[in-house]
């Protein structure tokens, strides 16, 4: 199992990025850089490429609406080149709030769009002339443009003809599609003991149709990491994050994260969290997040307990454990955890 972590920052992300070289030396395998509606991800990943040597550099995630498939391919190829073949392209549909509210693009056909984006990105990285006749039309016909467009292939030769593509997916149809054609899967609120009740059927159906030539599906997920005899109280630090996504990342009846938590077994709690959050009672929503849910989705407790949680994630199929270390010495904690994985 590989070990990874998201790049966590508030304010200036450069300071957080500067810490990655120390984490790399401690054994961290992958760093994931998010993009919502703050700083963009590729700029920080390019900065990291110049300050690291071995760590995998991954977007988590770039949405499939604000950039064309060809531009996503250019970004993947550019990052892979400057990093010497260490890029991972994490993609996802994001949600209507960001896509329509920030980018002003209609949030339509997320499943079909994701599939086509992956197909076009892979074609571009193979330096094939780009052609598409689906949601995306390449080249654009005369009745939609000047008529001067023609199939083009990437001018420069990529470092690798393939860059691993991970998909952030939660719903059953999206998870099934991810298991069918993506290199990796980025689930959220992953409770290892409940995977059979939430995603097992979708994963099995997707793997049954997995594209020929692809390696087995990688799974990257995890949670807060804190080790000690009296650290359970640190789980409260995760409450704002859980409440934000369960309660605020979508409207009533249209929140993917609420649905997942409901399927894990906390339907009544998820509904209460969402009602409180949408009514403006954010602190009450945070308090309503069940302690059992926090424990399931994180790795917080004595060393023996954390090792049991690591084993549970591995048993559930996780191949790249994502952790957010909470400690006075996060680099040292990463080094210890890496030893436990090996």
TrEMBL record:
InterPro entries listed in its UniProt record: F420-G6PD/mer, F420_OxRdatse_Rv3520c_pred, Luciferase-like_dom, Luciferase-like_sf
Keyword tRNA processing among UniProt keywords: no
Pfam families: Bac_luciferase
4Fe-4S is among the record's keywords: no
Domain Luciferase-like: 8-319
A GO MF label: oxidoreductase activity, acting on paired donors, with incorporation or reduction of molecular oxygen
Keywords carried by this UniProt record: Oxidoreductase
Entry-linked PANTHER family: 5,10-METHYLENETETRAHYDROMETHANOPTERIN REDUCTASE, PTHR43244
Protein name from the UniProt record: N5,N10-methylenetetrahydromethanopterin reductase-related protein, SAV7403 family
